[in-house]
Amino acid sequence: MTDAITFLLSPAAFVGRTALTVIAELGGFCIFLVQGLWRIVVPAPPLRKIVQQVYFIGVKSIFVIVLIGLFTGMVLGLQGYYTLVKFGSEGLLGAAVALSIIRELGPVLTAIMITGRAGSSMAAEIGIMRISEQIDALWTMGINPMRFLIAPKLAASLICFPLLTAIFDVVGICGGYLTGVALLGINPGVYFDRIDAAVEMGDVTGGFVKSLLFALLVAAISCYEGYFTHARRDGFGAKGVSLATTAAVVFSCVAILVADYVLTSFLL
Amino acid sequence: MKKYSMETTVGIFVLAGLMCVAYLTVKLGKLDVLGGDRYPVTARFKDVTGLKSGAYVEMAGVRIGRVAGINLDTKANMALVTLEIDKGVRLTDDSIASIKTSGLIGDKFVKISPGGSDDVLGPGGLIVETEPSVDLGDLIGKYVFGGVK
C-alpha cells in the first residue's frame, strides 16, 4: 500500500527535488557573487592581477569586437536603408543605426562575444585548477582563492565590458556610415546630424548600465561554473571541466538576453 | 620587456575605450562638460504636442540652442518649455517662439522669430509671445469634417 502511494507521488518528488536543486544553485551563485564582489574591495586584490585580466579580457577582445561592430553597423545600414527608403525618409538612417546599436546591440553583442572568448576560458581555467587541486593548495598556503582568482576577473570584467561596448558603438556607427553614406549615397552631414539629434544622454547611460550588469553576470557565472566543477553531479574530472565550460557559455548567454529584456523594460 | 608591453597595451586599450565613452557621452549624449556656455529661457505654450526634450531651437534657420525640459504649468494648465540658448545669442523680450515641424512628418523644433524691442531677455527670462504646434491630423480633420470657414 505504501509502495503504491510512493510510486504515485514520485512525479511530485521529482518536481520537488528539481526545485530544491535549482534554488540551492541560485542561492550558492548569489553568495558566490557577493563574496567575489566583496573581495574586490576588502582586501583589494593585487593590481598586477587585475591588469593581467584586463589584458586578457579586454585587449585580446578588441579585434573581434571591432570586426563584429563594423559588420553589425554595416548590415544595419543596409537593412535600415531599404526599409526607410520605402517611406522616403532614408535621412533617418543615422538615427536608426545609432539608436539600435547604442541601446541594444552594442551591449548585448559585446557581452555575447566576450562570453565566447573570455567566459569559456575563465570557466575552463578555474575548473582545471579545481580538479587538479590547485585551489585546495591555495587554501593550504593561506591564500584566499576568491581574492586571488575570482575578484580580479570580476573587477577586470567591470572595467572591460563598458569600454568594449563603447568601442563597439563607435565602430558600429562608422559601419553604418560606410554602407549608408559611402555605398548608398546618403548625405554624410544628414547622417551624423540625425544621430546627434536622436541620441539622448539616457540612451548612452542605459547602454552602459546594461554592459555593467552583463559584466557581472558573465564573469560571475563563468567563474562559478569553474569553481564548483568538482561539485557537478553529471560529470567528473576532464568531463566535468568540459561540462562546466559549456554550462558557463550557455547560462551566460541566456542570462544576458533575459537580463537585457528585464532591464530594458525598466529603463524605458 | 614582456611585462612592460602588456601594461602599455592595457593602457592604450583603456585610453581608446575612454575616448569612445567620451565621444558617446559628450558629443552624442550632450553632456555639458564645460557648462556655462548656454543660458536658460522659458516659454509658455498652449500646446507642445510632439515636442521632445533635446529638440533644436532655431532662429532664421540657424541652430541657437535646444529644449532642456518640458513641464506643465499647473496654474494655467499650459506647457512650460525651458530653452537653453547659446551665450552669444541675444533675444529681445518680444521674440516669438513657435513650434514647427521639419518636413511634413519630421521632428518638432522651436523656432524663434526676433522681435523689434530694445529690451534684451536675460537668463531665466520668459518668452510671452508663442505659437502652439500645428497638428497635421487636426488640420485634415477640420478640412474633412467641414470646420474650415
List the defining traits of the structure above.
heterodimer; A: 268 residues; mainly alpha; 9 helices; 85% helix; B: 149 residues; alpha/beta; 2 domains; 2 helices; 34% strand
Task: Please describe what this structure looks like.
The complex is a heterodimer of chains A (268) and B (149). The longest helix of chain A has 40 residues, at 2-41. In chain A, helix 4 packs antiparallel against helix 6 and helix 6 (145-183) crosses helix 8. Chain A is mainly α and 268 residues long. Chain A has helices at residues 2-41, 47-57, 62-84, 93-131, 134-140, 145-183, 188-198, 201-227, 238-267. Chain A has one domain (48-267). The N and C termini of chain A lie far apart (58 Å). Chain A is built from nine helices and no strands. With 149 residues, chain B is an alpha/beta fold. Chain B contains two helices and eight strands; from the N terminus they run H-E-E-E-E-E-E-E-E-H. An eight-stranded mixed β-sheet of chain B has the order 7-1-4-3-2-6-5-8, with no helix packed on it. The mean pLDDT of chain B is 81. Chains A and B meet through helix 2, helix 6, helix 7 and helix 8 of A and helix 1 of B.
In total, the number of domains of chain B comes to 2
Radius of gyration of chain A (Å): 23 Å
In whole angstroms, the N-to-C terminal distance of chain B is 85 Å
Based on secondary structure, the structural category of chain A is mainly alpha
In terms of DSSP E residues, the strand content of chain A is: under 5%
SS field, number of helical segments of chain A: 9
